[in-house]
Amino acid sequence: MRCGFLCRFLWLWPYLFYADAAPIQKVQDDTKTLIKTIVTRINDIAHTRSVSSKQRVTGLDFIPRLHPVLSLSKMDQTLAIYQQILTSLPSGNVLQISNDLENLRDLLHLMASSNSCPFPRTRSLKTLEGLDDVLEASLYSTEVVVLSRLQGSLQDMLQQLDFSTGC
């Protein structure tokens, strides 16, 4: 009787193990899809193409630049900064992108927890120094630079997700 139960359990073991892997792949696929959606939303904002993304605007040093290798926690930190900047912009164009970034951060947290990564939720960031002054001086250019850098960061994240990303 015990052998029968043990044999049935051993027979089910591969299926139980495989069942756990499928949702992780789904989360990673959903993450990639959301990144592509955000990039498309940025492309759909017409005025982002009218100003060069390489335009130099004084005081934008707080906007994250591209990183060669991104861990899940670094991706979350970068997205948190972009989210804070986007919520400070008065433009209605970026509201949905900001909401998408929150959803993307939640997906990154799911991926981290599935990999058993210690992944503390990024606390409320300190108000970015000089953000209000920069927005007052050059709101339009700031929005264009923020969106173009965000787009570049998202494309880097998309590539990083194809490889194994560390905690």
UniProtKB/TrEMBL annotation:
Presence of the UniProt keyword Disulfide bond in the record: yes
Pfam families: Leptin
Keywords: Disulfide bond, Secreted, Signal
Cystines in this chain: C117-C167
Annotated signal sequence range: 1-21
Annotated Gene Ontology cellular component terms: extracellular space
Keyword Disulfide bond attached: yes
Molecular function, one GO term: peptide hormone receptor binding
Role, per record: Key player in the regulation of energy balance and body weight control. Once released into the circulation, has central and peripheral effects by binding LEPR, found in many tissues, which results in the activation of several major signaling pathways. In the hypothalamus, acts as an appetite-regulating factor that induces a decrease in food intake and an increase in energy consumption by inducing anorexinogenic factors and suppressing orexigenic neuropeptides, also regulates bone mass and secretion of hypothalamo-pituitary-adrenal hormones.
Family: Belongs to the leptin family.
Protein name: Leptin
Species of the source: Pipistrellus kuhlii (Kuhl's pipistrelle)
